[in-house]
Amino acid sequence: MQTEITEPGPLLLPSGKLAQIGWARQPLLDCNLAQANFYPGRLMQSYRLKRWDYYAVFTPLHFFSATIADLGYAGNIFVYLLNFSTGELHEEGFVVPLSRDVQLPRNSTEGDASFKDQHANLSFQRAPGQRVISVSWPDFNQGRGINAEIKLTTHPEHESMNIVIPIGKKRFYYNHKINCLPAEGFLQYGDHLEEINPEECLGSLDWGRGIWEYSSFWNWASASGYLPDGRTIGLNLGSGFGDTSRATENCLIINGHLHKLDQVTFNYSAQDYYAPWIFTDSEDRLQLEFIPFKERLAKTNLLVIYSEVHQMFGYFTGWVETDSGERIEIENLIGFAEEHRARW
Fold first, then answer.
1. Do 334 and 221 touch, CB atoms closer than 8 A?
2. Which of 69, 93, 117, 296 suits a disulfide with 311, CB 3.0-4.6 Å?
3. Are the C-beta atoms of residues 204 and 177 closer than 8 Å to each other?
4. What DSSP state is assigned to residue 140?
């Protein structure tokens, strides 16, 4: 059974336990991480808390992504860009000891995220009706440089995937994911300047907070695009983390309205990530094949911190059924699917 949260309230009780468990169409809970009670003494809580803001934008030419993260004992800043026609993929990032100069908001609905040093300046600003992604990284790719100023339009009635689930007895995961946000602005990479317009460009947000097990694993798949009739379509699928018996993050978003899915199975080969991925669900409302065309392999190995991500870009084809029973045919919807293993 999937439990829908419909009333606002705190994320955590004074005891550190989750006040509610389930999913919601809007971010209703106040992320009061100061109430976390993972260790007997709360002095060390901040070193186990994980927080990140991950933005992504699909354009006809590129996939662009920027992240500001705080892993508790270190910050993680990274930007990457994929050119769909040439296959060029470039990513740069760095670890910030003790998360120095990393600023992240308490909640996803208000406040800004930022990081600035002598190499890069990233800012994610939140204002009524919009989110603005600003990136200036002159040394990106040996001085080629990357600059972006992209506004994502947000409407109050636009629904999103919000999930609150336990991980074991004391750990938890609180996530807010938004698909299909109209994007406008510019993206400059070296001498190439791409104008971004909302008629063909869509952005998304992955906003995560929580305390994970030291060794963690998860799958995630996402897409934002357009149907032939002009409606926007978003997919968000996930598995492998936490107790999802009362809530999964699986959903379909059509023109800003969320259609909830139950359990979804990722069927793929960890020996050949380019082989087709098959997605099915527990209610026979989803049947998708994902054909990858590009792999983003991101590895971090700093002894205590280890991360390995196989993020595959490709095309989704198949069908999915809405809450009202409408069968949506999907053909060559560009998106990604990933496997992530971490010790953090």
1. no
2. 296
3. yes
4. H
Per-residue CA distances from 195 to 122, 189, 190, 232 (Å): 19, 12, 14, 20
Q: Please provide the DSSP assignment of 220-282 as one string.
A: EEEEEEE-TTS-EEEEEEEESSS--SS----EEEETTEEEE---EEEE-BTTBTTSPEEEEET
3-state secondary structure of 45: helix
Structure confidence at residue 307 (pLDDT): 87
Amino acid at 49: L
Q: Which residue has the tokens 């040394």?
A: 139
Amino acid identity for residue 146 in this structure: I
Partner residues linked to 265 by β-bridges: 280
Within 10 angstroms of residue 231's Cβ, the number of other Cβ atoms is 13
User: Which residues lie below 8 Å from residue 276, measured CB to CB, with a gap of 6+?
Assistant: 268, 289, 290, 291
Start-to-end CA span in the chain (Å): 31
- CB count within 10 Å of CB 203 equals 29
pLDDT of residue 42: 66
**Distance (Å, whole) CA 61 – CA 80:** 14
Q: How many CA atoms lie within 13 A of 195 on its CB side?
A: 2
Chain center to CA of 78 = 14
Could you give the 3-state DSSP secondary structure of residue 104?
coil
Identify the segments of the chain with pLDDT beneath 50.
none
Task: Give the list of residues 6+ apart from residue 291 with CB closer than 8 angstroms, or none.
Answer: 276, 314, 315, 317
Rounded Cα–Cα distance for residues 251 and 188 (Å): 33
Q: Which domains does the chain have, with CATH numbers?
A: 9-343 (2.40.370.10)
Percent helix, strand, coil in the chain (nearest 5)?
5, 60, 35
Whether 104 contacts 113, CB under 8 Å: yes
pTM passes above 0.85: yes
Separation in Å, CA 264 to CA 70, 279, 282, 316: 29, 7, 6, 15
